Every structure is written in structure tokens, then in C-alpha cells.
Amino acid sequence: MGFIFRAFFAPMDRLQTAQGVPTKVPFLFATMTRRIINNPKLRPDYIAVVFDVAAPTFRDKLFAAYKAQRPPMPDELSIQVPLVRRYCEAMHFPIIEMAGYEADDVIASIARQGAEQNLEIYIVTSDKDMMQLVGGSVWMLNPGKGDLLIDAAKVEEIMGVPPAKVPDVMALMGDSIDNIPGARDPNEKPAPGERRKAGIGEVGARQLIQEYGSAEEAVRRAKDVKRANYRDALEKYSEFVFLSKQLAKIPTDAPVTVDLDSWKLVPPDTNALRTLYAELGFSSLLRELAAAQVAAAVAATDTATAAGEPPPPAATVETGVYEEFSSAAALSHFFGEARAGKPVAAWLELALEKDEDEGYGSRVAAAEFSVAPQTARSIAVDAEGKTLDAIVPWRNDAKQPKIVHDPKLFDLLTCPENPSAESKGGFNDAPRLAGVCHATKLYSYLLRPTTANHAFEEVVLRTLNCTLSGARGEHADFLLRIAPILRAEVEKQGLAELYEKIDLRLAAVLARMERAGVYVDRKALEVISATLDKELRRLEMQICELAGCAFNINSPQQLAEILFDKLNLQPPRRSRAKSRSTAAEVLEELSALHPLPKLVIEYRELAKLKSTYADALAKLIHHGTGRLHTRFSQTGAATGRLSSSTPNLQNIPVRSEIGRQIRAAFTAAPGHQLLSADYSQIELRLLAHVSQDPVLLDAFRRGEDIHSRTAQEVFGVAPFAQTSEHRRAAKVINFGIVYGLSAFGLAQQLGIEQREAARFIAAYFERYRGVRDYLDRHLAEVRQTGFTRTLFGRIRPMPEINSHIPNIRNFAERTAMNTPLQGAAADLIKLAMIEIDRRLPEQGFETRMILQVHDELLFEGPQKEIARLRELVKPVMEGVHPISVPLIVDVKVGQNWRDMEP
Question: What pTM did the predictor assign?
């Protein structure tokens, strides 16, 4: 039970099933036990797990207050204990429990009997009082200390006394967890504002036992004790010292029988274990179990072969009969057969290629198709792509239902392999994602938005509790199996409309944007890189001059030696573990003491800009197009926002001069211009909509400057009298409120006292009471349901909001406040992207949508189309979905991404 409680209070995000059942305790318990039995040096021959029972023991009769102050087991923990028991049963760990005896007593009795049978006994625990049982062939194994093995000598090193004297130390120091009083009055109730009288601590208890040999002798010779408070405690509370020793002494006479035959460590019940892991969502443990089964099968086969015996039958997941198409003609015949109404699962394997002349690109390397569970066909695609010609009629038929994993990859079938090729008939004229009805990657993301991995193998593992073998044709087979299961759950969760109207339709839009790419001036990046290199060398010289010696600025260890040893700087309010940290927040604190840390911060920022953008972007420019073809992801952010990679274009800085120079390298092609359309203060407008706060509604409906209005409401300063500082502070408050900004955070951002920051926040909520009421209602709802839902129905599980760990709970509350607004903003711009993408070809535009960055869309089109483009884009974005206040879009035009004018 000690490990169960430790797992419950472990400082990590709470785990839960899709149904909201907490699972952190069984996961950590399983992790700990597996680590032990999988370690060849620790793996035991016999094992038993001892549980406490609710029945009273002799200690309760001896001392009525024993463990009396312990609160009842939290409901969140009590529902996890049976899951731990199920894990033990699946592992074939015998469970021992005895009414009238604590688990410690049972363990002690087993240890005594085992030692008498000449067994080596390892007591797996983190409790110090169990050290009294160590000695001879009995060890203590503490997983909390890196699987520390404790023998009698180690006990004396840790406790300062031999194992037999541990109860004496406990008798003097007591144990607040078990309410063992030690040398103090357990009935003492301090007056309000007063502290409880100090007794004897662990260090003092050790010293007294080392000097006098036992608790009884320390009491008998109390007058000889030099330290007054120790002497006073021993004289006044001797009866509680004697009682405490009785409570701390662990008896070894519990009527338990060591049954080695039933306690032998045997292989687990893999079916029960697999079922439990799947039920609890333990994907990593499922993978480990599958790998262990494969290894065991291989070992068994090797053993049988060496003995000249037939190999044992393999335990495999039921798979289908897979075959390969012999030719493109066979593939054509497959799609030519009558399959009306039958969904076809299509799996595409891509080859990501890096060519020194052409840059990065993707092509379809192989394909698999299935029309019925457990039957599938696969084909390798020839280099010229002629094989794919055979599937054009099927691919173009919108009435033919199709099942895919990543619909963006399916769209590769509708475009030329070379991004530089123009769209001139063929695949590019086909309807985007024609007939796609199920996209399992999007289903997985909608159901589990906080899960990072939506790879097909992971989705199969979570859905069907099995691992793929890698056979050709298998992916298409399992696509067909899992699609209806995931679809049913999507409908049950009320996410089907979101999938149909936004996520699935957006996939084709993103595929088209990826193919379009954005033109980047390689020479401009090279100039920026050279400038940064020169600036970095200058900073390096300055830093080394201030340090008084040359050193590697990029080495945290060498930097720490300069800061803390050579310059003797001491960061304020830092724990011992972080006292030599060179993290950014520590350097910020040290900047007030010495100029060197500030220069290191500047050096790091410039080095990151150089490596992440100036150097990296140039290498990713496609030689044939001169453009960057980023990869957009719909499944990378829990809020519903898009992300991008190879390269990441979502976080190019805009505030620093170098960041603006990098943006200037993103240009329009000759004869073209860029048009940027950016939602103005969209999250604050959504806050007005969901909160219905009258002040916010009035300000946005009147078209007022919301930051000026907030400065007026919070600071009581009329618009004509406001300074830039008033507006800046109001802006920080406005955007900070939707992120759960605390008084401490506001004080740091504005450089003011925390008390003044708290006053500003109180003033904000006093004037914007509708916001306060909305946030309170929303947080109460999330605490009750365990998830938050956005304007368009997108869900995000938020189990941490009920965490018993303050930091985790506070972070969850802040996330719960912002997710509905950020998620709604993300879906609004997605709807706009879908509609604009539909209208551009409809209205004969050559313009292409090329980038999406948070609340901004970037277009590239011929100069002659820009005026007409504005008249299309702005109304669509502002009218994409009605809310209680106007949506405003700022439109700018320019030759590059930096120098754009309204």
C-alpha cells in the first residue's frame, strides 16, 4: 500500500482512460514491479504482494489515536486499488492479506520464516521503519532510491544505528504519518496562531540512541541529557516514548505460511494482461508485452530446434489472407469489379526523398487496398507512376466510399510528384478526397487530442489491442477493421459533424497549400546568416572578456563554473538542486547582478535564430521551385490549432529585428504579391461572445480600441489622458485573463509590485463581471465533467483539473480557461480556409493560399488579382460564422512578408 500511495501522490500528469477512469496508480505500480522482475540482478524466484485490510490491529487497541488522523482514502485512489489487484492477478503475483495484522507485520513474519529456510529475502519498500527487519539473509530494496539494496551496514549508515535499534529511534522521533507520538504529547492542541511544541527530531533521536543504547535507557538517564529540550521531552513524555516503541516494533509472529509452490514467479497471463492494458490505455506496456511475446517465441523455437524438436505453435493475432497484384492490369481489374456501396480501404506508403539538386519531396512508393476484413492486396508502384493510372476511375468516383488513415497522403494521388510541375490535367483535375468517408488518423485525434502519437500502428494498438506484423496488405486490412469502431466512438462523443464539416475537408486544403509552398530568397537568408555569425563572434568576445577567460558558452557546465565559481553569483530563491542552473529564467535573475548573463541570453537567442531559421531554412528550399514546402499537421496541438514541420513556419519571430529580416526573405514570385489576412483580437471577441459580458460586447460593437477601453475601466483613465504604458498594461491584462494570468505573472510582465498587480486583476473582474462569472461556471463544469468543449464541439480531456498537486491543478485551470477560445479561433480560420479554397478556382483566381500562422492567412497571387482577392477574402473570413460581436480582419499587401501595408 505504501507504493500505491506513493504512486497516487507522484508529481506527474494524471493518466486516465478515454472514459475518464484515473490510471496513474496501476501504471506506476506496474512500471515499478516490471523493472524489478526484468532486472537479471534482482529477478526473484518467488514473489508475494501484501495488502493491508480495514480490520483493526493490536496497535489500534494499544493506542486509540493510532493512524486516527489519516483522512479516508480519496475516491480517486480507491477506484484504482482494484486495478492494481487485477494487475497482480494477471501477473500471477499471489496477494497476501490478513485481518488483524498490518501488511508490515505479515511481511516481517514472511521474512523471518524465509530466513529460517535459508532463502534470501528482499523486502521491497520505501518505509524506514522496515529497516529493523534487515540483517543476515534479509535485505531491503528501495525502488524510490534507484533500486537501492540495503543491508545491515547500510541501515547503520542511513539511520545511524543497527537494524535492531530502529524501533528505538522511531520511539523518540515518532512518525506523523502513523500518528506515533514519539517524545511529545499526542493530545496537545496548540492555541490558534501557536506552533506545536517541538519534540525530538530524527537527528536528535539517532544521537540519543547512539549514546544511551535504547529508548528506555535514554528515558532512565534523561537528567544526563545536555540539550534542554531533549531532556524536557524525555522527562515529560516518557510514557509516550514507551508506547511509541511498542507501536514501532514490527512483530514477526503473524499466522502466515510461506508457500513457495504458489509463490513461484511464473509467466503472466498475457491475455488478461493485454486486456487490462488495452482497457486502461497503456500503449507502451502493450508494445512491451508484444515484444516480450515475440522474444519468448523466438527463444522457444531456438530451444526446440537445438533439441531437434518441432517448434511450438506461435501465438499470433488473427490476420487475413494477403496477396500482391501481379500487374497494373490486375489492379485495374480489381477496381473494375462491381463494388457498389462497398468501402475500399486504401493505404499508401510514402518515400521521403532528399535530393541535393531538388530538395525534399515525397512520392507514393507502395499501395495496399482491401474491400473486406481479413482480405487485402498490395502493390509496389513503378517509378514512372503508371501503376497508379489504373486507379483513376475509382479514385475519381465520389460515390465510391473510401477509407484512409491520413487523407492528406491520399491527396498525393491527385497531384504530380514534382511540386514544380504545373497542374495540367490528369490527377490534378480530380475532385479532392473524392468519396473519402473515414480517415482514421483524424478520428483518433478527435477522440484523443492530447495524445501525441496518431501513427497507424499506435491507433491499431489502442483500438484492437494488437500489434501489426508488417506483412504486405496488412495495413489496408486493419484500416477496414478499425474505421467503423472509431467512427462509432466519434458519433457517440458528438464529434461527427466537426469531422465532416471541418477536419476532413481541411485535409485537401492543406495538401494543396503544401504543394504550393512559399517562395524564399536563399541569398537573403545567406546574408542574414553571415550577419548573425559576425554578431555572435562579437558577443562571444565580450562574454569571454567579462569572464576573464575563454570558455565554451554553449556548455552549461563551463558556463556554470564561470557564473557561480569564478564570478560568485548567487541566484535568489533557488533550491539546492537548481542552484547551478543556467536556464533562461536563472540568467534573467542574475542579469541584475552582473552584465555577463544578459549577454549570454542575447547570444543564445541569436544562435537559435541562426540555426533554426537562417541556416536551416536555406537547406530546405526546393531547388526546382525555389520554395519551401512545409508539412501542415491537423493532429499536432490539443487545442485544434495547426502546426507545421520540415520546416516549422508557425514560430518565426516578429518582434526582433533579425526575426523581421527573416520574414522579409519570404517573398512573392516575380509579377506576384503577397496578401495577409489576419483576424483582429479574435480570442477577446470570442470571450465577449461566450461570456456575454456587457462591457466587452459594447466595446466591440462600437468598434472601440478594446485595450483603451480596459485601461479606462481598470485604471480609471479617460482615453485622451492615457499613455502608452496604460495601453500596454491593459493589453497584458486583456490577453492574460484568458490564459489565467496570476497576480505574480502580471507583476513580472509589468515590472510592478504583486499587490498592485492583484489590485489591477480585481478591478478588471469588478468591471467585467460577466467574464468572471463565465470563467467560474466553465471551470466548475470542467471539474465535474473532466473535459472542455469548444464552440464547434471539439473536446479536450482535462483530468488534471482535479489533481491533488497544486502546480498541475493550476496549470490545468489555466488551460481550461483558454482552450475553448483558442480552439474556437482555430476552427473559425479553418472554416474560412475551406470556403476560400473552394471559391478561388470557382471564381477563376490563379492566386494560391500558401501559409496559415495562428490567426493569419497568407496568399500569393498575380498583382492584377490582389484587389479582387481582398474583396473575396475579407468578407469570407469576417462572415464565416456569426458571433455576438463583429469579426474584424486586417488585410495587408506587400512584396515580402515583412514589408506589408494595409
Answer: 0.77
